[in-house]
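Re: beginner question about structure tokens

> Can someone show what the tokenized structure looks like for a real chain? I only ever see the sequence side.

Sure, here's an example I had lying around. Input first:
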Amino acid sequence: MEIKFKKLNQAAQIPSYQSKGASGFDFHSVEDVILHPGQVHLVSTGLSVEMPEGYELQVRARSGLAAKKGVFLVNGIGTIDSDYRGEIKIILSTCQRSPVELKAGERVAQGVVMKIEQAAIAESAELSETLRGVGGFGSTGVA
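And the corresponding structure tokens:
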């Protein structure tokens, strides 16, 4: 499978896998960014992508960025659909008490390719019974 990336900015870096067993590739910022506590920032990658139909590109946090700088992906996991052609931007914030600086060229997120399937969506007046029923939010007793 081939994934096509288009540079929208001269400073953009085309992602690549960094090891044979890597499941994700890194996205780099094309700008210097200062993340202020309690604020959300859209970080530009300078890239757009063409994903094959039937696949999505998940944008995930980088553990090193979280551990070293307290920077996290605000939306948990971002989804780039196969029909989206706009710029990939990373939604970041910090849990630090002071501003965090990210330099242009710094790795700010990782991309993981996932196969998807669209389900048939149907309204139903009744759902089948299960042993669990409506129990949720810790109701199974598993910590």
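Each token stands for a local structural state, so reading them left to right follows the chain. The radius of gyration is 19 Å.
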